[in-house]
Structure formats: structure tokens, C-alpha cells
TrEMBL record:
Family of this protein: Belongs to the acetyl-CoA hydrolase/transferase family.
Stored Pfam families: AcetylCoA_hyd_C, AcetylCoA_hydro
SUPFAM superfamilies given in the database record: NagB/RpiA/CoA transferase-like (SSF100950)
Domain Acetyl-CoA hydrolase/transferase C-terminal: 287-438
Keywords noted in UniProt: Hydrolase, Transferase
Protein name from the UniProt record: Acetyl-CoA hydrolase/transferase C-terminal domain-containing protein
Ranges where the Acetyl-CoA hydrolase/transferase N-terminal domain occurs: 80-195
GO MF annotation list: hydrolase activity
Keyword Protease set for record: no
Organism, scientific name: Paraburkholderia metrosideri
Length: 444
């Protein structure tokens, strides 16, 4: 804490307490919200988990996106289900494991999924989900009394101010960031301190298929383009294929090590952007320690709430936005299911549709849906006659499609032309069956 103002220091110390004391006022039957992903506060979560384990609280609704290590090990234990009632807005491995255990335990319902669009999440909390308390991790207070939300602005900054009570965990490992990320000590009800390292997310090594797909995408990206990348080995491989480009910009939901590498190399300088020129814009970050260190006190990066970053109208103000996302399956007309597997919710809509629409609305922009043609070691075609789950991206919005077998621009094509183009992008072993199914559906 770098504080020269004695009044601010006194205010900080007045609100400073232990994690156990900070959560002691949270009651059964109330609704709390948590910061997302890396901003989930370990000490507070452990203290709240201890209360639940002791039977001191019951039926507490917990709203959040992206459960990471701290939340998984504290509140998302099967033994606490019922006392803790998870309301996940983006399912991941921890929730899928809880759901599996609940099914084995007499088909017990333990996790509640809240369908949403990421860009609308601040409004959902403001108008539809009253929050009694918000728990979040922030960067240390500066000499003017300001923390920052660090890796996570997203819905977190808005809910922090709308909640009935705001409890923050101050951690020197949380990077201090620029943009609309400031939180003043006067806005906080209770403060705890910790120095736990942030969880790290290291992308998987790119496969040969990832590299083929990334090369197709890199050929489409022009110098001066503005990038949005999703998470995983493929988007990281795309970043690796862009190292010879120049004057790229970043306006992305998620900041990743791949994008940071392009910034470090000078490939990204944001000089051609129409808004936030000279700045790489993001709403949340997942990466490794080196990336968090790069983010810390770096004026080249700016963090904004998700209802700004993911607003299609805002996205479209930059020219040549290239949005790269993936999907679980695509039907023969171009509709995408990016969130449902084997009859179950697997993840969520996230911000995919926000950027699909924003990128296509930008002058010269391209929305790209890129994926391997198969799953399960080649046993399952990801191009299918009909989707097995909800539509995440409608066929009317899908633009460029890329698999290891090529590229298709679906805009302006009839349903018959789309089916023909997508069958060519499918694995050769699947094409005969897909052609037969397309005929049965009167597509060709």
C-alpha cells in the first residue's frame, strides 16, 4: 500500500479485518456475487466455505462466471451443495463434475445455470438479480486511495457498486491496470489482505491441425486489423501465425498470452484503431505470471466493463475487426452450438455472438468461426445435419468458417450452397453421410 494521505490510511485500516470477520455478517438465504475467474478471492472463499462446512449458513445463492482454482477448492465442494447453491453463468470443469456427482447421487440438482449474453450481464445484475454482497480480489491501494479490478472488469466493476455490501481482498499479485478499473476505498465495506499467487492458465500446445487452421486465418488478416481472440490452443496458434503482421490492434473480451506476445513484439501498436487508439482493450484476462507482470501498471493496456467491450456497436467503430472464435458443432446451414454437449449444458454463450455481430458490422471486418472438423479423436464430425443443442450463433450471423480443410464465406449463399460448402470443410470420412443427410433435409 502506497499511501501518503493519513486520512486515507486511517480509512483503510478502519475497514481492514480478517477473512472470517469479513464474511461473518453474510446470512443464510441471501444472494452473493463473486468476481470472475482470477479475481475470485481465496481467503474470503475459504472463510465462507468454513462457515458452510460448520453448518453456519444454508441456502446461500452464489452467482459467478468462470470458476477457477480458488472457488473450486472452497465453495464448489460437493459436500457443501445445498448450503451453497451455485448459480453459474458460464459452466466449466468444476460445475460439470458437481453435476456428474449429483446425477450419481439420485439425480440430485446441485448446479443452476443462468443463460445469458456476456455483454448483458451487468444489466442482469442491476435489474434482475439483487445482490446482498459482492466478494472480489483487487490490486493494492495507491496513494490516492484507489484499488483496481486488475484482471477482471467484466461485470465485476458494476456489481461491486450495486451490491448491498462490498468486501475486497487486496493482493499484491493482482496487477494494477488502467482504463475504467478504479475502485476507491470509500466505496468498500470491508478489506482483507492476502498474497496468494494468482492461478495460471497456460494454453495447450498447438497441434498440427491448429497450425493449419491458424495459417488459413492469418492469410485473411490484413495489416492494421483489430483482433478479438477466444481461449485455447487454436487462438493462441493464430496469434503465433501473425508475428509478421504490422500495426494490429486489440479490442478483445479476453486478454491472453498470445495477444500479449504480439504486443511485446510490436506487432500490435493499436495505431489504426478509431476508438481507444494506442491502447489494447480487454474486459478480463487469463494467463500466466509473466502476463500478469506485463499487465501491471502498463498504460498500453486498458480494461473496461463488458457492456462496453462486448457491445457490438462499440466493436464496430473500429475498422477491420477480425473476431476468432470456435464452436462445438455447426449444422449444414451455418448455425453454431458452442455450449451444449451430449444433452447437457457444457459451457455458455459467453461473448461469442457479441463479437460475431460486432466484427461483421465493422468496415472490412470478418467474424471467423474456426474449429477442428472432428472431435473424439476423429470419431465425431463437428459439422452435423442438425444441432444437438441450442443455437449460440444463428446461421444468419455466421460469416467465415475455417477447418483444417479450408475456408468458406457463408454470407450471401443459399442454404443449398452453404451445405455444399460446409460438407467440403468436413472430414473426408464424414462427407458421404453428410451429403445423404443434406438430401434428406432437402438442402441439396
Amino acid at each position: 500500500m502506497k499511501v501518503k494521505n493519513s486520512a486515507l490510511e486511517a480509512l483503510f485500516n478502519q475497514k481492514l479485518t480478517s477473512a472470517a470477520e469479513a464474511v461473518s455478517r453474510l446470512r443464510s438465504g441471501t444472494t452473493i456475487a463473486l468476481g470472475m475467474a482470477m479475481s475470485q478471492p481465496p481467503s474470503l472463499l475459504e472463510a465462507l466455505g468454513a462457515r458452510a462446512e460448520a453448518g453456519d449458513i444454508d441456502d446461500m445463492k452464489v452467482y459467478y462466471f468462470h470458476a477457477e482454482e480458488f472457488l473450486r477448492k472452497s465453495l464448489l465442494r460437493y459436500s457443501l451443495m445445498g448450503r451453497i447453491v451455485p448459480h453459474s453463468m458460464f459452466l466449466g470443469a468444476p460445475e460439470r463434475e458437481l453435476i456428474r456427482l449429483g446425477e450419481e447421487d439420485g439425480n440430485r440438482k446441485v448446479v443452476y445455470f443462468v443463460p445469458n449474453t456476456f455483454s448483458q450481464s451487468p444489466r442482469l445484475f442491476e435489474e434482475h438479480i439483487p445482490v446482498d454482497a459482492m466478494l472480489v480480489m483487487v490490486s493494492p491501494m495507491d496513494e490516492n486511495g484507489y484499488f483496481t479490478f486488475g484482471t477482471n472488469n467484466d461485470y465485476t466493476s458494476g456489481v461491486a457498486r450495486a451490491a448491498g455490501r462490498l468486501i475486497v481482498e487486496v493482493n499484491p499479485n493482482m496487477p494494477r491496470v488502467f482504463g475504467a478499473s478504479l475502485l476507491h476505498v470509500s466505496e468498500v465495506d470491508a478489506i482483507v489482505e492476502s498474497d496468494r499467487p494468482l492461478p495460471e492458465m497456460t494454453p495447450k500446445t498447438a497441434s498440427d491441425t491448429d497450425k493449419v487452421i491458424s495459417d488459413f486465418i492469418a492469410e485473411m488478416v490484413t495489416d492494421g486489423a483489430c483482433l478479438q481472440m477466444g481461449i485455447g490452443a487454436l487462438p493462441n496458434a493464430v496469434c503465433g501465425a501473425l508475428t509478421s503482421h504490422r500495426n494490429l490492434g486489440v479490442h478483445t473480451e479476453l486478454l491472453t498470452p498470445g495477444l500479449v506476445d504480439l504486443i511485446r513484439r510490436g506487432v500490435v501498436d493499436n495505431s489504426r484503431k478509431a476508438i481507444n487508439r494506442g491502447k489494447s482493450v480487454f474486459t478480463f484476462a487469463l494467463g500466466n505470471r509473466a502476463m500478469y507482470d506485463f499487465m501491471d501498471d502498463n498504460p498500453a493496456l486498458e480494461s473496461y466493463p463488458v457492456d462496453y467491450v462486448n457491445n457490438p456497436h462499440v466493436i464496430a467503430q473500429n475498422d477491420r475487426v477480425f473476431s476468432v472464435n470456435s464452436t462445438i458443432e455447426m449444422d449444414l446451414t451455418g448455425a453454431c452450438n458452442s455450449e451444449y454437449v451430449k444433452g447437457h449444458q457444457y459451457s455458455a454463450s459467453g461473448g461469442q455472438l457479441d463479437f460475431v455481430r460486432g466484427a461483421y458490422a465493422s468496415r472490412g471486418g470478418k467474424s471467423i468461426i474456426a474449429f477442428h472438423s472432428t472431435a473424439a479423436n476423429g470419431k465425431i464430425s463437428k459439422i452435423v445435419p442438425r444441432l444437438s443443442g441450442p443455437v449460440t450463433t444463428p446461421r444468419t450471423d455466421t460469416h467465415m468458417v475455417v477447418t483444417e480443410y479450408g475456408v468458406a464465406n457463408l454470407k450471401g449463399l443459399s442454404s443449398s450452397e452453404r451445405a455444399t460448402a460446409l460438407i467440403k470443410l468436413a472430414h473426408p470420412d464424414a462427407r458421404e453421410a453428410l451429403t445423404k443427410q443434406a438430401r434428406e433435409l432437402h438442402l441439396i
